[in-house]
Design brief:
Blueprint: E1 4-5, E2 11-12, H1 29-54, E3 58-63, E4 71-76, E5 79-85, H2 93-111, E6 118-123, E7 142-147, E8 150-155
Parallel strand pairs: 5-6
Antiparallel strand pairs: 1-2, 3-4, 4-5, 7-8
Helix pairs in contact: 1-2
Amino acid sequence: MEESIDPTGRIAPESEKLLFQKTGTTMSLQNKSEMFGNRLSKVYRHLQKQAKRQGISCYRIYDHDIPEYPFSIDLYEGRLYVAEYGRRLGLGRETHGEWLNAALKVMESILKVPQDMIFVRQRRRKPGRLGQYQKINEEGEFFMVEEDGLRFKVNL
């Protein structure tokens, strides 16, 4: 088994083996989370000001900006909708769970949205598009949002 060495020279534990395998560089989960956090913070600060000026309360904050974090993150009046797009990141099931939890903690911290207001969906291509758009659950948690004098019913 190969050891991963992060940019500081520290040997990274197995759970921190990284997503940069294709480029040949290795970086720890903590360093990647920091990189993701910096990007998210920068984009959010800019978009938040712009949305406030225009009276917009629902908008996309992040859209696959960093390949190692294949998310689309939308803000709906204090709620986050996070769509994780299935990509081969070279992570096992357990490591993927750790990576996802670390990413969600970054989102919660930077965007100041409580964990129970973050809705995560996993998007994956299905062979032949069978079942791609089928309804999975009849239940819904609807809430109203207002944009430009219009009201919309949203179900995350």
